[in-house]
Design goal:
CATH superfamily of one domain: FAD/NAD(P)-binding domain
CATH class of one domain: Alpha Beta
Number of strands: 19
Distance between the termini: 40 Å
Radius of gyration: 21 Å
Protein name: FAD/NAD(P)-binding domain-containing protein
Keywords: FAD, Flavoprotein, Oxidoreductase
Function: Putative FAD-dependent oxidoreductase.
Pfam families: Pyr_redox_2
Order of helices and strands: HEHEEHHEHEEEEEHEHEHEEEEEHEEEHH
Strand order of the largest sheet: 5-2-1-9-16
Organism: Carya illinoinensis
Largest sheet: 5 strands, parallel
Shape: globular
Helix content: 25-40%
Length: 366
C-alpha cells in the first residue's frame, strides 16, 4: 500500500477553478497527489455568504478565505486557464502545466478582484453604497435578488427597496408555494415587487437615479444592484480538446462518476456540469467529494467498477430572508419563517464550511 501511495504522489492533478467545488477538491487531495490549483483569484469565497457581507462587511472576514489557508501542500497558479490539450493546461501567462488527471471547476463567469483584501474592500464599498442610499433598486428575482432584498429590508428597514423581476413569480427555480411565501414576506417588509417587467438596460446607471421598466413605468432610486444570472464559465473551452463535450448551454457533459463523457482522466464538478439539478453551492461541494473519492481510487490503480456514483438530489432549497427567517422547500413541504431560518440564516453555514476546509469556524487571523 505504501508503494501505491508513493506512486500516487507522482500523479499530477490540475484543478482549474478555485470556487466552492474546486477548492474543496484541491484540499481533499493535496496529500494524495501533486496538486496544482489554477485560479485567477488568490482566495475562495463561500458564495451563499456574499449577500450578508454586503450589509455586514465584517462577515466577509470569515467567508473570504485565502487559498493558502486551507491548501498547504500544493501549487497555486494565480491566472486564468486558456487552453487544454490531452496532456497539459495553458494559462493566460503562457505557462504550460502538465497533468495526469484534470478537474474543470470554473463555475459561472463572475468577475471579482484578484486579492482577498480587494474583495473585502469591495464589500465595504457596497455597504457604503447601501448605507448612504435612501432608495435601492434590485434587478432580478432569483435567489440572489430575493436574498439581497431580504438582507437590506431587515438591516435597513428605513430604505425604500424596489425589486423588478421579468418572470411571473419570484424564485422560479423552486415551487410556486415558496415563491408566494417569499413575495408575501418581502411585501410585509415594505419591499415593492414588480413582476413581469424588465428594467431598460440603457437606464441602468447610478448617476441618473431614474429607471424605466419595460411597462413604461419610471421611478427613482439612489443606486441599483444587478442580480440576474451569469453564464457558465466555459466560453474558453470551445477552443480546447473538450469543445465537443459541451452541451448547447455551454455546460460540460459528465457521466455518473463526474468524469467528462468519453474521458478517462478528466472530471468536471460544480455549476459547469450538465447535471440536472439546481446549481447550488452545497451540491457543488458534494460533487467535489465524489470526484475526490474517484480520483483517489484511480490514482492508486483501483478498479473503475468501484468508482462512486453521484446521484442528483431532489429539489431542496433554502433561501434566506434576512437574519432570522428563510423559506425552505423540501421534497414534501414548503415552510417559511424562523425554523428554516435557524438552519441557514443565522450563520449561513459559514462555520460549517470553514470546518470542512480544516479552518477554525469562528476565529479569523488576518
Amino acid at each position: 500500500m505504501e508503494g501505491q501511495d508513493i506512486e500516487a504522489q507522482r500523479r499530477r492533478l490540475v484543478v482549474i477553478g478555485g470556487g466552492v467545488a474546486g477548492s474543496l477538491l484541491a484540499k481533499s487531495l493535496q496529500f494524495h497527489a501533486d496538486v496544482t490549483l489554477i485560479d485567477p483569484k488568490e482566495y475562495f469565497e463561500i458564495p451563499w455568504a456574499s449577500l450578508r457581507a454586503m450589509v455586514e462587511p465584517s462577515f466577509a472576514e470569515r467567508s473570504v478565505i485565502n487559498h493558502r489557508d486551507y491548501f498547504t501542500n500544493g501549487r497555486i497558479v494565480t491566472s486564468t486557464a486558456i487552453d487544454i490539450t490531452e496532456t497539459q493546461v495553458l494559462t493566460a501567462q503562457g505557462r504550460l502545466i502538465p497533468y495526469d488527471f484534470l478537474v474543470v471547476a470554473t463555475g459561472h463567469a463572475n468577475y471579482v478582484p484578484k486579492s482577498r483584501t480587494e474583495r473585502l474592500d469591495q464589500y465595504k464599498a457596497e455597504y457604503q453604497k447601501i448605507n448612504s442610499a435612501r432608495s435601492i433598486l434590485i434587478v432580478g428575482g432569483g435567489p440572489t435578488g430575493v436574498e439581497l432584498a431580504g438582507e437590506i429590508a431587515v438591516d435597513f428597514p428605513d430604505k425604500a427597496v424596489t425589486l423588478v423581476h421579468n418572470g411571473s413569480r419570484l424564485l422560479e427555480f423552486i415551487g410556486p408555494k415558496a415563491s408566494e411565501k417569499s413575495l408575501h414576506w418581502l411585501k410585509s417588509k415594505k419591499v415593492e415587487v414588480k413582476l413581469e417587467q424588465r428594467v431598460d438596460s440603457n437606464s441602468l446607471s447610478d448617476e441618473s437615479k431614474t429607471y424605466q421598466t419595460s411597462a413604461g413605468e419610471i421611478f427613482r432610486a439612489d443606486c441599483h444592484f444587478l442580480c440576474t444570472g451569469t453564464p457558465p464559465g466555459s466560453a474558453w473551452l470551445k477552443e480546447t480538446v473538450l469543445k465537443n463535450n459541451l452541451d448547447k448551454y455551454g455546460r460540460l457533459m459528465v457521466d455518473e462518476n463526474l468524469r467528462v463523457k468519453g474521458r478517462k482522466n478528466i472530471f468536471a464538478i460544480g455549476d459547469i456540469t450538465d447535471i440536472r439539478e439546481i446549481k447550488q453551492g452545497h451540491l457543488a461541494q458534494k460533487h467535489a467529494l465524489v470526484a475526490a473519492k474517484n480520483l483517489k481510487l484511480l490514482m492508486t490503480g483501483g478498479k473503475e467498477s468501484k468508482m462512486a456514483i453521484y446521484e442528483p438530489r431532489s429539489v431542496k432549497a433554502i433561501v434566506s430572508l434576512g437574519r432570522q427567517d428563510a423559506v425552505a422547500q423540501f421534497p414534501l413541504t414548503t415552510i417559511i419563517g424562523i425554523v428554516p431560518g435557524m438552519i441557514k440564516s443565522r450563520d449561513l453555514f459559514v462555520g460549517k464550511t470553514r470546518k470542512q476546509m480544516g479552518l477554525d469556524p469562528h476565529v479569523v487571523h488576518n
